[in-house]
């Protein structure tokens, strides 16, 4: 009888001790959760204070939820920062030509010289076209990023499309005394793409080179296994590896991708269109050259 009573007390003691430890663990977990909720920026997680497997499993599941929430918060904050930067850049891009236009309108009003007025009107027209180009870029980007952006796929000879695009800018390169080299495989390389958008990609990359090439511009096309490769190359100038990592970002304000009345959207649009047509685009520095490389599956 005595042993039974002693055994009962031992069982009760063990149960009470377990209950007390369990309550302590839960209270500690609640305190940690309150700390996490009050300071989410610290990215803290629950620390296991119990050897109980069920509680440990519960804390693990809770930590997974917290980790997912923390990742969502990080993504949200980054996107918020990006949106603020984009709004600032859009405001800057629109404000600059608008301020110039308003300034020249004031000059026209205060001038009695017709020749001066005509000159100012020409400048206003140029600035208005720049502004129109900015707005068109913003509109096109918003359309291209949607999943239902229409693409009309067809079989296209890359050499023909590339030749036509390069010839269209021959006079402009000649005026700037930039040497142009075009190297292409003799055997035609065919890809499946949207003709208009492929031309747009080529035009964007040629225009980019026209703005920043100092003396030389090269286009090289060749086949690599089952891919058609097109490389656009010009002098790298002062470009660094750090700048290169942002080259395709929207509204990037580096000298290479956003300058000379540019919104910085040309290369962004080029990247999106390339990927929509199952292609890949990459930018790199090779010695003294800045290289943008396109790769499309060939047929």
TrEMBL record:
User: What's a single GO MF annotation on this record?
Assistant: phosphorelay sensor kinase activity
An example of a Gene Ontology cellular component annotation for this protein is: plasma membrane
Q: Which SMART domains match?
A: HATPase_c, HisKA
The keyword Transferase is annotated on this UniProt entry: yes
InterPro entries cross-referenced by the UniProt entry: HATPase_C_sf, HATPase_dom, His_kinase_dom, HisK_dim/P_dom, HisK_dim/P_sf, HssS/ArlS-like, Sig_transdc_His_kin/Pase_MprB
Q: Where in the cell is it found?
A: Membrane
Topology of the protein relative to the lipid bilayer = Multi-pass membrane protein
EC number(s) reported in the record: 2.7.13.3
Q: Which reaction does it catalyse?
A: ATP + protein L-histidine = ADP + protein N-phospho-L-histidine
| Chief site of localization | membrane
Source organism, top-level taxon: Bacteria
Q: Which residues form the Histidine kinase domain?
A: 89-299
Sorted alphabetically, the keyword list is: Kinase, Membrane, Phosphoprotein, Transferase, Transmembrane, Transmembrane helix, Two-component regulatory system
Entry protein name: histidine kinase
